[in-house]
Specification:
Blueprint: E1 3-6, E2 12-13, H1 14-32, E3 39-43, H2 48-60, E4 63-66, H3 73-83, E5 87-91, H4 95-104, E6 108-110, E7 114-118, H5 138-141, E8 148-151, E9 161-164, H6 166-179, E10 187-190, H7 197-208, E11 212-215, H8 222-231, E12 236-239, H9 241-250, H10 255-260, E13 263-266, H11 273-282, E14 287-294, E15 299-305, E16 324-328, E17 341-347, E18 368-376, E19 382-387, E20 392-394, E21 397-399, H12 401-409, E22 414-424, E23 427-436, H13 442-450, E24 461-464, H14 478-487, E25 491-493
Parallel strand pairs: 1-11, 3-4, 3-5, 4-8, 10-11, 10-12, 12-13, 13-14, 23-24
Antiparallel strand pairs: 1-2, 5-7, 6-7, 8-9, 14-15, 16-17, 17-18, 18-19, 20-21, 22-23, 24-25
Helix pairs in contact: 1-2, 3-4, 6-7, 9-11
Length: about 500
């Protein structure tokens, strides 16, 4: 029997999770009159309560709407207004979202570490339950549920709602975890947000395959995550590359972890070849995978076993898990030749359309337009080169921020960086924000760029910032980065002439 292991909490068998979810479902019924078809918005950090809430929503037949707890108050308010749920839940300590919840409703109450807000709350109503409403066969429940909705981070635009069928999430989870060789005696640790399908399907897949699942709160310090990895005896880990680089690449890792860890897979953001090399050196006995997927594709669609001899560490591998697709010219929609850059368009298990819109996300023949720019080789291996919306048009030259970021990160003084485009008159130029680990002069950084980049690619401005804002999966939140640079008072230079 699977066990839920929340870091720093006592382990709880799956049967206990389901029992607690039944009690929570009853409380939701009494407090907000919730029943089949009602909508509930949840913006919760990873916790046992989060897992129990998901199962309680399954029991009640609710439409579950997941929002990252890191969302801005403005984004959260917009989701509440557009989704018009009957209830919403946030962590009690989430002061950023508390104001939005207060504006949405006066009917609030504490519910075991979370705050429940209800709109037009009614006493518990007599409703026709689903035939399996009291069953503990949770996998069967999923066939009776409305789609879940997962909100994107909105790193380059506004957050969008992605509707996904629970049964297909489970099928993807079983397939992907089966590909990684997860077995009942494994302890699976997704260092990922459960508010994103990428994190939640690891939990569901582990339980479906009889393995234990280790859950780590997103607010945990890096030291706490590292300790939990060792103390909970994880054998399979899924995480963003920025987490993997810290746990396994930057400082090595605990010898016990190195001996025990069978599988590490990283996705959600790009893994650089340098990061991959350091991680492979630290984990010589571990199968290491670089993966790619989106909420819109039910997460993972490409996978590269980087620990395989001769593997291309810049690639996320070929399409897998019934996915297919090609790189297409964004303007004409025609497929590009092998080795050329185009927008990745994917078919297979994909969403039907964003909440409130449909056509703009798909090609005429029904493939999902990811907005990711890629190169595909003759064998179908995919290499991500950037984002279409992040591309900078510098007087006719297409500049991908990742190319500049890769160069800046190689400077010994730069700990992290992010690049975006900004208008100077009628032209668009690159602007770089850097986090320094060691002092550096403006001449050093600009000279470093000039010797490694084309003239139009050299950043016009380089600005020191305390940190690079990132979403839950490690992707740079470029809209936030722009706002941070505007208010930052530590420019290295205003001209790269």
């Amino acid at each position: 029997m699977s066990t839920l292991r929340v870091v720093k909490d006592p382990p709880l068998p799956l049967a206990g999770v389901l029992e607690r979810s039944a009690a929570l479902a009853q409380r939701l019924e009494r407090a907000a009159g919730l029943g089949p078809g009602d909508r509930i918005v949840a913006a919760l950090e990873n916790s046992g309560t989060h897992v129990e809430l998901v199962a309680a929503a399954w029991r009640l037949g609710l439409e579950f709407i997941a929002v990252p707890p890191t969302a801005s108050a403005l984004t959260f308010s917009g989701i509440l207004a557009s989704a018009a749920p009957q209830a919403a839940l946030i962590d009690t300590r989430n002061e950023r979202l508390a104001g939005a919840l207060r504006d949405w409703t006066d009917a609030r109450q504490a519910l075991g570490g979370v705050t429940l807000g209800a709109r037009d709350a009614k006493p518990a109503r007599k409703r026709a339950r689903r035939p399996d409403g009291t069953s503990d066969d949770w996998q069967e429940w999923l066939t009776h549920l409305p789609d879940a909705v997962f909100y994107t981070s909105g790193s380059t635009s506004s957050a969008k709602g992605v509707p996904l069928a629970w049964r297909q999430i489970l099928e993807k989870a079983r397939t992907v975890l089966g590909f990684y060789g997860v077995e009942p005696d494994d302890r699976v640790m997704p260092i990922l947000p459960l508010s994103h399908v990428y994190g939640l399907y690891w939990l569901m897949g582990a339980f479906a395959l009889g393995a234990d699942c280790i859950v780590c709160p997103e607010s945990s310090s890096p030291a706490a995550i590292a300790a939990g990895l060792a103390e909970q005896a994880a054998t399979v880990v899924a995480c963003p590359p920025i987490v993997g680089a810290f746990l396994f690449g930057r400082h090595g890792c605990d010898p016990a972890v190195r001996e025990r860890l069978r599988v590490l897979t990283m996705g959600g953001a790009a893994t650089t070849p340098e990061q991959a090399k350091r991680i492979l050196a630290a984990l010589p006995r571990t199968r290491v995978f670089l993966s790619y997927g989106l909420a819109e594709t039910y997460s993972t669609v490409c996978c590269n076993e980087a620990s395989r001899p001769g593997a291309d560490l810049a690639s996320v591998g070929p399409f897998r898990f019934s996915a297919f697709g090609e790189a297409r010219d964004p303007a004409s929609g025609r497929a590009v030749a092998a080795g050329e850059t185009g927008e990745l368009c994917i078919g297979g298990t994909i969403m039907r359309g964003y909440v409130g819109t449909h056509d703009e996300a798909f090609t005429a023949d029904g493939l999902f337009r990811t907005g990711d720019l890629v190169r595909m080789d003759a064998e179908g291996n995919v290499t991500i080169t950037g984002r279409l919306k992040e591309m900078i048009n510098a007087g006719g030259l297409s500049i991908y921020p990742a190319e500049i970021e890769d160069v800046l990160k190689q400077h010994p003084a730069v700990a992290d960086c992010g690049v975006f485009g900004e208008k100077v008159g009628e032209l668009e130029v690159a602007c770089a924000a850097v986090v320094l680990r060691n002092p550096a002069t403006q001449d050093e950084l600009f000279d470093y760029c000039r010797t490694r980049l084309a003239v139009k690619m050299v950043p016009r401005r380089i600005v020191i910032v305390p940190s690079i804002p990132r979403g839950a999966l490690g992707k740079i939140a470029r809209a936030e980065l722009r706002a941070l640079v505007v208010t930052c008072s530590l420019p290295l230079s205003s001209s790269a002439a």
